[in-house]
Specification:
Elements: H1 14-36, H2 39-45, H3 49-56, E1 70-73, E2 79-83, H4 99-108, H5 120-131, H6 142-157, H7 172-188, H8 191-201, E3 203-205, E4 208-209, H9 211-219, H10 228-237, H11 250-266, H12 272-280, H13 301-312, H14 321-330, E5 334-337, H15 341-354, E6 365-371, E7 378-383, H16 418-427, E8 435-437, E9 484-486, H17 487-492, H18 496-503, H19 508-517, H20 546-557, E10 561-562, E11 568-572, E12 578-579, E13 587-588, H21 592-605, E14 621-626, E15 632-638, E16 643-649, H22 683-695
Parallel strand pairs: 1-5
Antiparallel strand pairs: 1-2, 3-4, 5-11, 6-7, 6-16, 8-9, 10-13, 11-12, 14-15, 15-16
GO molecular function: penicillin binding; peptidoglycan glycosyltransferase activity; serine-type D-Ala-D-Ala carboxypeptidase activity
InterPro entries: Beta-lactam/transpept-like, Glyco_trans_51, Glycosyltr_51/Transpeptidase, Lysozyme-like_dom_sf, PBP_transglycosylase, PCN-bd_Tpept
Keywords: Carboxypeptidase, Cell shape, Cell wall biogenesis/degradation, Glycosyltransferase, Hydrolase, Multifunctional enzyme, Peptidoglycan synthesis, Protease, Transferase
Amino acid sequence: MASGKSRGARTIGTLGRFLLFLGVSALCGVLTAGLVVPAAAVSAMGATASMDFFDELPTELQVGPLSVPSRVLAADGTELASFYVENRTPVKLDEVSPFMPEALLAIEDTRFYEHGGVDVQGTMRALLNNISGGSTQGASSITQQYVNNVLNEARISAGKDASVTLNGAKTIGDKLREAKLAIAVEKKFSKDQILENYLNIVYFNPNAYGVEAASQYFWGVSAKDLNLQQSAMLAGLVNGPSLYNPVTQPDAAVKRRNLVLDVMLAQKKITQQQYDAAVKAPLALKLNPPQQGCAAASRAAYFCSYVEQQVYNNPVFGQTREDRQALLARGGLTIKTTLDPRLQDAAQQQVDRVAPPRANPSKIGSSLVTVQPGTGKILAMAQNSRLTGKDNWVNAINFNVDKKDGGGNGWQPGSTYKPVTLATWLDEGHRTQEIVDGSKRRYPADFPWKAPCQTPDRQVSGAYDSTLPNSNDLKNAEEGWYRKMPAAEAIYNSINTATYAMAAQVNLCNMGQIAQNLGMHNAATGAPIDSLQISSFIGGTEGVSPLTMASAFATFSTDGKYCAPVGITSVTDRKNKTYEVPQANCRQTIKTEVAQGVNSVLQEVLVRGSGYQRGIGVPAAAKTGTTDNSEYTWMVGYTKGLATASWLGYPDGYRSPNARDGNPGAQFYGDGTTMPYVDGATVAGGAWQGYMKEVAPLYNTDDFPKPPQSVVEPKNPHSGNQG
């Protein structure tokens, strides 16, 4: 039986058998009365104490929802992963092979369609057989077994021990309660409904709850396609899932299966010819162990993990994190996501090429994440580590997201932050072709920055001044750039000194607001970027996530409309109840002309700037980023249809990938390749280019609108006016 109860292995003495006979005979009398005597009549008769006890037992079984796996789906409907504590797929009775109920009833409850929930005749027969010393027989009907399984399921769902409802641990009171509930179930459901419910709830194996999951696990077939011998094996298995486990106890499983076939033949449910063929058939198992969780995802394991965290962090799915975990594991949710498998597979191929998960002795991380401008939909999220695998580089951190979503503390963005300075510059009325002085390298602690939002507790901090201890003058990546130049050139060639010259002319508080309008924030805390730390102008302070950077740059692509990144489009449960999911809340946060001005400058990055060799053959804009010693390198770029951040670095700390000055450097491409200098355009840029060349044509590749002259030409082009 489904409860896994013992049939009894003890020898009962003659006196014990007699006393047991008397006790169970009394119980059967109570059950018979409960079946045939109306409650009012019993009351009028002056019921016995036993009848009073029976009548006071609960009269309705609280049937909660079955524990059903939740599924995470890609945008095209393909399954990415499932979550469960009980692998179960409920089916209708007419979706089950007719052999299955015939076999089950033959061995477990041949009078199922005749009794009212408790088979008194069967109970007495089993009792007499047991007392006489014959093989021990059970007496619970299918309805009683269903009740027992429902009670077990309820206790497990509530986090309680289900062992008290197992037959081996039951008291007489437990048995009476089960019996009366079985009677109530028979009054509430039809026989076919009870049989269907039983077939869906019954335990077959730790990998299989219910007949559909069992069919798929043992043979990879649907329950409707079970043949006679398969049905007989499953019917025999419910009596002792461990004892008759066909994987670990194949001989016992065959013996039990054939016993079921013997009974079916005796009851004329099958012909002699069917019987002869079935008993000779091998078990012929084709095991399909189910895999659950993001580690077993068919693709995009880290995106799956991100989606999982979205559920766990959202009170819509339960008051506590434990409630949300239980809903995901038991609630039968269908979670539809934004992931485009075409983009995901291409991204995975690129990051794995950089440093393959099985050939990455340096343990250097490579990641790509793409959002769709104008919708915020996350279309791809890939990295070169794995969540599991014997020979893989395993890392639990999602490189692409914030800490609360399963990521780390973020990574310094380097020069990919410079477009924030450019956007602020344009927002305050400056022009892309306005001349700035890149020769200035010293910014002392008392430099008169424009920061009206300063308070006694929050002041502009930082200095570039070689006359101070532990400080240096501001440097560029290469010599020859300490000169005057247009602001556009300062950005597309990523000139630090010229970028600081721009920052010196704008309101730093406004720069912080522009960064917030682009959705930028600290990956570890969620707090806004502190624009009063002057090293932030070139991305040298706080950690941000690649997803944040991709979403920020997508704002430029849409002429200033920011959309929060979203990974889930809908969540429904088994009853089609819908749950509210986070929305992109797209809104205009940057002036249109400012965004268009930024676009015009960042397009030049791929033409004559720091990423000149990384064009993708369609209109695109980008910015490279390289932190000190190349510890983190970036390329963030976009078309009208896609915005992608490519990141490279060590997730476990600050180390240089550069192979020089005694440093071994990182090994790339799975063949031991090292490089003396890695910047944003090399490895991260190569991954971005290879990926975007492949996938950009799948989405919008229209030209970017040209910016108005009011953000391009200097106010007085002949004077070289910097204001």
